[in-house]
Amino acid sequence: MSIYYQKDIETMDPEKLRDLQSKRLCELVKYVYSRQHFYQSKFDEIGIKPSDIKSVDDIKKLPFTTKDDLRENYPFKLLAVSLSEVAEIHASSGTTGKPTVVAYTNNDLKLWGEVMARAIVCAGGRKGDIIHNGYGYGLFTGGLGVHYGALTGGFPVVPVSSGATKRQIMLIQDFKPRILTCTPSYSLHMAEEAKEMGVDPRELSLEIGIFGAEPWSQSMRKEIEKIWGLKALDIYGLSEIIGPGVAMECPGQDGLHIFADHFFPEVINPATGEHVKEGEDGELVITTLTKEALPLIRYRTRDIVSINYSVCPHCGRTLPRISKVKGRTDDMLIIRGVNVFPSQIEEVLLKIEGVEPHYVLEVDRIGSLDQLTVVVEVNETIFSDEVKEIERLETKIKREIESILNLRVNLRLVEPKTIERSMGKAKRIIDKRIN
Amino acid sequence: MENLIQLSVFIENRKGRLRGVTKVLKDTGIDIRALSIAETQDFGVLRLIVNNPDLAYEKLRENGFIVKKTKVLAVEVDDRPGGFDNVLEVLEKNNINIEYMYAFVEKHSDKALLVMRFDDMEKALKILLDNKINVIEAQKIYNI
């Protein structure tokens, strides 16, 4: 059985891939210029004509697109097709103001199914494997994205969505799925519930976990793999681009293969907009080469990654690999001038043996000074009948965080299950500073 | 000699948290024999001697508390000037450190009763017994 879904594309010669991308980009600029008023005026503003773009090397000449551009054109002003050609509309959660709306034609949905099927096979899925899909169904693209991929690739899918966790455990026991798809934090929540029911998650049938929609660290991966006894793989996607299925890890766990024949990646310095070198951290920028309803040129994902163009030594895919998301340009906390990513703190907590990743970062301004407090749920490993033992461990955690961040932090231990458990994305930051 | 089991419970320094523990004990019909709280600014460690430590341990954990069982000794001390000093003298001479200790409210006899935790429990027990200091059987404590 093949480890590829579309071998010809996934192992395409890099030069041929580049030719294909160039050809598609040239068509794309013509398409957006004639169909999206937004791009027409943006191109005109900087004096760019579609004919100026001859290959992907010229992509630098094109303007960026941001999330604000999508918000300002709410709900349908950015569409490149008439509403009658739209098959499905999704909206991402808007924490401030209006949500971001994305639309798909039937061809876009076909594309989504295709890249998601590629992702499932890339993760080690074999036709006929049952998928327990614990991503939320609805406006969020996670649930339906996996669903379409399962339909396209021939994987029986259980559209269980998120929530009613105990029932989910029962269904896993009875249906015996091989693949679990949900957010990484929800997978830990499920494992906890299973244990409470007296079920050992490792005894269940799951062998592959396709986890995404929130940043998660290597240590959280180890934790999940240990608790579930499965291979935990990272999937990347965002609704503005298509949803899940933009990039996927293979079992080598050595970067996520980005489906660059459809989603052209660049990594830039978020401050200057210039390309960074291969392997350097920067903001991921994606151009959708083949979408119809809402194609986007150089979309700023705000995700911090690095990129690797070498052939994957594990699976032989030639598609470039992006690193796991290392942070978000907008989730990044700036405390006393220091950039802080929740993932850095998570790494430390997980290194201290046995500490499950239930934590939240509280930022407050005391006088004129920003204070970062790491709130951590205590567990049986940390707890001791002797206060000095607990304090010794507190100091150890604090020191390790401080040495990584180069910033003084407070640490507060709280009782188990006092930090809110999320069904979807984990809330890691409480910022009490007044803007 | 069977070890006396103390339960330690993690308690956040928040209103109602101690009550959370006592409510579970009440609902389970557990009697408290002795208790102490070691506290810091943010949290406390509640140490308990109860009549049925296994049941209390189970019920507290079921209710989401972090609980730990620790071996301690119940040491009887003459209730007269110098009674406690006599015990400490024996311990000091034999290089035994007390990690922490607290007193029972009820008495087993006309003597005072202390819960003691040492750095080396086995050695402490032997020294105490060798020096004719009374260490009370765990079962007797549970049944006071």
Question: Gist?
Answer:
With 435 residues, chain A is α/β, with parallel strands linked by helices. Helices cover 31% and strands 24% of the residues of chain A. Chain A has eleven helices and 21 strands.
List the keywords.
heterodimer, A: 435 residues, alpha/beta, Rossmann fold, GMP Synthetase, Chain A, domain 3, nine-stranded mixed beta sheet, four-stranded antiparallel beta sheet, 31% helix, globular, B: 144 residues, alpha+beta, VC0802-like, 2 domains, six-stranded antiparallel beta sheet, 5 helices, 6 strands
The number of distinct helices of chain B, counting runs of at least 4 residues, comes to 5
The CATH architecture of the largest domain in chain B: 2-Layer Sandwich
CATH topology of the largest domain in chain A: Rossmann fold
Query: What is the overall shape of chain B?
Result: globular
Q: Provide the helix percentage of chain B.
A: 25-40%
Name the average pLDDT of chain A.
91
Rg over C-alpha atoms of chain A, rounded to the nearest angstrom? 22 Å
Instruction: Please tally the β strands of chain A and state the result.
Output: 21
3D architecture notes:
The complex is a heterodimer of chains A (435) and B (144). Chain A is α/β, with parallel strands linked by helices and 435 residues long. Chain A folds into two domains: 242 residues, ANL, N-terminal domain (Rossmann fold), CATH 3.40.50; 99 residues, GMP Synthetase, Chain A, domain 3 (2-Layer Sandwich), CATH 3.30.300. In chain A, 31% of the residues lie in helices and 24% in strands. The radius of gyration of chain A is 22 Å and the shape is globular. The N and C termini of chain A lie far apart (56 Å). Chain B has 144 residues and is an alpha+beta fold. Chain B folds into two domains: 67 residues, VC0802-like (2-Layer Sandwich), CATH 3.30.2130.10; 71 residues, VC0802-like. Chain B is 33% helix and 34% strand. Chain B contains five helices and six strands; from the N terminus they run βαββαβαββαα. Chain B has a six-stranded antiparallel sheet. In chain B, strand 5 and strand 6 form a beta hairpin. In chain B, helix 1 crosses helix 2. The radius of gyration of chain B is 16 Å and the shape is globular. The model of chain B has no long low-confidence stretch (mean pLDDT 92). Chains A and B meet through helix 11 and strand 20 of A and strand 1 and strand 3 of B.
